[in-house]
Amino acid sequence: MAEKTLILNGTTVADGIKANLAARVAALKEKGIVPCLATILVGDDPSSATYVRMKGSACSRLGMESRRIHLGAETTTEELIAVIDGLNGDDGVHGILLQHPVPHQIDERAAFEAIAIGKDVDGVTMLGFAQNAFGMAEYPSCTPAAILAILDYYRLPMEGKHAVVVGRSPILGKPVSLMLLNRNATVTVCHSKTEGLAELVRQGDIVVAAVGKPAFIQGEWVKEGAVVLDAGYNEGNIGDVDYEACLAKASAITPVPAGVGPVTIATLLKHTVAAAERRVFQP
């Protein structure tokens, strides 16, 4: 590892976020409000079940409520939306998270759109996406927000930098591109149909890997001194970048695990607490 390489420790960033939240949760409890995140898991995907447990455990450690709803793999779109509608109308629930992915028979976009904007703490609705595009989202998508939180924590500049985002999903690649653009970066978005991918990545001062393929971003694709943020998590604790190879080239890099992931969860908790505060102070 080059001496200059800064390891962007997401656990440290997340701990700072949660330390700030502890006092806010205590203040809400004094008013009789316990911030509550409802998580919906459809089916029996083991990775999704693990993610839901991690989010629930993080809530518990902060004194928040975690309401877990587990629906069968045969659940229909209509049945799922009915559950979401019930949570929308429950004043004791402040945030709703539908764990991605859902079984193939479900219209995931329709289910996301059923989440009330005031409880869309994961930033998955089209309205939330549009607000994010204009820099006005109260609850931007959590992983993109986590990436910017890491850059801010380590005081890594975005303005004027060329950011290359590999991936264009509506809850990661696209929103992080917009958030970087709003911070005055020049942004190139790459995807499965991009030609000359390696050369484009090599132009990036900031490289965001959000493609969902293990060790996909190669070391020779990364220019000397680039900042590499790995938003991927694949089986075996492997991210979307070839970590050792990119480590040798980057000026700063997130590890996997203990990189973007912990900050994503902390951001979700932050949004849920903010939604609870809004119910108290802006009823």
How many helices?
Answer: 10
Count the domains: 2
Low-confidence stretches: none
Termini separation comes to 52 Å
By CATH, the architecture of the largest domain is named 3-Layer(aba) Sandwich
Going by helix content, strand content and strand pairing, the class is alpha/beta
- Let me know the largest β-sheet: 6 strands, parallel
* CATH fold category name of the largest domain: Rossmann fold
Order of SSEs: EHEHEHEHHHEHEHEEHEH
> Shape from CA axes?
globular
Question: What topology, given as strand order, has the largest sheet?
Answer: 1-9-8-7-5-6
- According to CATH, the homologous superfamily of the largest domain is NAD(P)-binding Rossmann-like Domain
Strand percentage lies at 5-15%
Q: Regarding CATH, which class of the largest domain?
A: Alpha Beta
**Rg, Å, rounded:** 19 Å
Give the helix proportion (percent range): 40-55%
Mean pLDDT: 95
Number of strands: 9
Family: Belongs to the tetrahydrofolate dehydrogenase/cyclohydrolase family.
Pathway: One-carbon metabolism; tetrahydrofolate interconversion
Function: Catalyzes the oxidation of 5,10-methylenetetrahydrofolate to 5,10-methenyltetrahydrofolate and then the hydrolysis of 5,10-methenyltetrahydrofolate to 10-formyltetrahydrofolate.
Pfam families: THF_DHG_CYH (PF00763), THF_DHG_CYH_C (PF02882)
Supply database-style keywords:
283 residues; alpha/beta; Rossmann fold; 2 domains; six-stranded parallel β-sheet; three-stranded parallel β-sheet; globular
